[in-house]
Amino acid sequence: MKELIDVLKKKSLMIFDLDGVIYRGDELIRNADKVIQELKNQAIKVVFNSNNSTITRKKYVEKLKSFNIQTELSNIYTSASITSVEIAKIKKNSNVFVIGEIGLRQELEAVGHKIVVEPINYGNIDFVIVGLDRNFNYNSLEIAQKCILEGKAKFYATNADSTLPVANGLKPGAGVIVKALEICTDQKPIKIFGKPEPFGIQLILNDFKIKPNNACIFGDRLNTDILAGNRAEITSIAVLTGVTSKEDIIKLYEETEESNLIDKNLIPNIVINSLEEIFKN
Ligand SMILES: [Mg+2]
């Protein structure tokens, strides 16, 4: 693993996906806490980045603390926090209609956006923001549709994950709800802020004033974490403690050799079995 150490030595910022890298559900992945602490001891900036918009950053701080990983709000980025900051760059203190949960709602309000629950005048809504909402219903879909078609609100989404990993398998992800609104408005989101898009990573690099070649991302999903890392031109490291297996990686290499249709950005720069390998010689 000398190669890995040599690569990582040059990095001053490391971005970690959470589920499948640091923990699996409510279980810490072995020694992930110690690895994070050791990186911090070496003065490396450690940032966590999750596509899940339903959980507040404060909850993530508490969850990590329960695993003996100390961090601050400013080191946590969710697709919800990234979306909230990015749309404020388009319009500050905007009126938004939201399909999403508390994690998204709190982040939007924290940067000054006003959430309108039942718009009287659809024309007053600047943005419709869609994230995962496990209480999603026909009524909110109809309001979102009207805000966009009648009121000319702009359509943005936190992420478009097809599935949500849970302790005992998979549930439908935010992408399902994004598609529902796409179909009834005949519009696609102007931007999707979460992974695999590079915007979140670019925001992190900008906030910490780090150049892409001084940063890396550790993630367990090729079509979100690795794709985002490669698109943002930082070093992408697949960790095999989550949804991607060694067989998946071998299959990807084989398919890439056979076909030029595979997106090269799906291929991680480095593959490791677990974060423990960072400090193994
Ligand atoms: Mg993950």
CATH superfamily of the largest domain: HAD superfamily/HAD-like
Query: What is the third-level CATH name, the topology of the largest domain?
Result: Rossmann fold
Distance between the termini: 6 Å
Secondary-structure element order, as H and E? HEEEHEHEHEHEEHEEEHEHEHEHE
Oligomer: single chain
Give the low-confidence spans.
Answer: none
Could you tell me which ligands this complex binds, including any ions or cofactors? magnesium ion
Q: What is the CATH C-level name of the largest domain? A: Alpha Beta
User: What is the CA-based Rg, rounded?
Assistant: 19 Å
Largest sheet: 6 strands, parallel
Determine the fraction of residues in helical runs and give it as a percent range: 25-40%
Strand content: 15-25%
Sequence of strands across the biggest β-sheet:
5-4-1-13-14-15
Number of DSSP strand runs: 15
Q: Label the structural class.
A: alpha/beta
Count of DSSP helices?
A: 10
Q: What is the second-level CATH architecture of the largest domain?
A: 3-Layer(aba) Sandwich
Describe the structure.
With 281 residues, the chain is an alpha/beta fold. The protein has 2 domains: 135 residues, 3-Layer(aba) Sandwich (Rossmann fold), CATH 3.40.50; 113 residues, Rossmann fold (3-Layer(aba) Sandwich). The chain is 38% helix and 20% strand. The chain contains 10 helices and 15 strands. α6 packs across α7. The chain is globular. The N and C termini lie close together (6 Å). The model has no long low-confidence stretch (mean pLDDT 95). Bound molecules: magnesium ion. Magnesium ion (MG) binds next to loops. The site of magnesium ion has 8 residues, from loops.
